[in-house]
Amino acid sequence: MAWHDIGPVDAFAPEEPVVAQVGETRIAVFKLDDGFFAISDICTHEYALLSEGFCEDGRIECPLHQACFDIRSGKALDEPAEIDLKTYPVRIEGGVVQCEV
């Protein structure tokens, strides 16, 4: 695994995902009240881009079937999703958000 630059800290709006493609991996990085968090951008129920869903209170709702996930932990919160999302470590280096993928 390696650290990858996602973008400058000031480019992130609260609860608005910034999407990055790292090789074959598509991730969504979120700025929440308590820090930055990265999850897989693909719903575990059916292929849908979570970054196109509705985000509120640290939860992301899939735009396809309304499954909800906790952004901090990746935990599937509502059906039809039953499988948690993969999460990725995030750090800030020199004002840049980085994700380990």
Per-chain topology:
Blueprint (H helix, E strand, L loop, with lengths): L2 E6 L9 E5 L2 E8 L2 E6 L13 E3 L2 E3 L6 E3 L16 E2 L1 E4 L2 E5 L1
Antiparallel strand pairs: 1-10, 2-3, 3-4, 4-8, 5-6, 6-7, 9-10
Textual characterization of the structure:
The protein has strands at residues 3-8, 18-22, 25-32, 35-40, 54-56, 59-61, 68-70, 87-88, 90-93, 96-100. By secondary structure, the protein is mainly beta. It has a single domain (3-100), classed as Rieske [2Fe-2S] iron-sulphur domain (Rieske Iron-sulfur Protein). The strands form three sheets. Strands 2-3-4-8 form a four-stranded antiparallel sheet, with no helix packed on it. A hairpin with a 6-residue loop joins strand 6 and strand 7 (68-70). The N and C termini lie close together (5 Å).
What is the β-strand count? 10
Query: What is the H/E string?
Result: EEEEEEEEEE
Strand content: 35-45%
Characterize the main sheet. Answer: 4 strands, antiparallel
Instruction: Look at the helices and sheets and give the structural class.
Output: mainly beta
Helix content: under 10%
Which CATH class applies here?
Mainly Beta
Please give the count of helices: 0
Integer-rounded radius of gyration: 13 Å
- The separation of the N and C termini measures 5 Å
Quick synopsis:
This protein is mainly β and 101 residues long. Helices cover 0% and strands 45% of the residues. The chain has one domain (3-100): Rieske [2Fe-2S] iron-sulphur domain (Rieske Iron-sulfur Protein, 3-layer Sandwich), CATH 2.102.10.10.
